[in-house]
Amino acid sequence: MDEVRTVVSRDGTTIAYGRYGAGAGDRPAVVLVSGALGTGAGQAPLARLLARDFPVFVYDRRGHGRSGGSGPYAVEREYEDLAAVLAAAGPGAAVHGSGTGGALALAAAAAGVPVAAVSVFEPPCPGLCPEVHARVLVVDGGASPAPVRRAARALSAFLPRARHRTLTGQTHEVAPHVLAPVLAEFVAEVAEEAEPA
What we know:
globular, eight-stranded mixed beta sheet, alpha/beta
């Protein structure tokens, strides 16, 4: 990972992030969103795997790790934090979140945060997101509880540009080496579609 850097969110809060994959600068970036209590450090195993093909940005959500801010605050502040990291990542960046990080990624996209694509792994079903018009990949684990898998399928069926994928044998604690190639394939496909003919 490169050194820890910072961006300033719309309300002036400093958000700390790290970048992996400095040699993949000509490819679109992937921004990883951690769960509610997580930090960018928890995303390092997945980030290192994805960094073979893409620049990867991981950040500490506000009030955690090296980022500033404290609660209570409106969830819209987190959308602004993600938007600030996406601006640092550059145009065409995709976002991936697991658990509540996935719910945040979807909600931010629905609120208009510019993303090329969104990938989520077993997000808690936050209500429906009819305004998410980016390409979406909804992933679940084949060994996760049946209600979680049903919710993932229902979410992918509802979103207009989504598809569903189940990772055989995986639970909510998905193995990074199993998730990384699926996510990399999705991001590469979206980037290829976006290239001018």
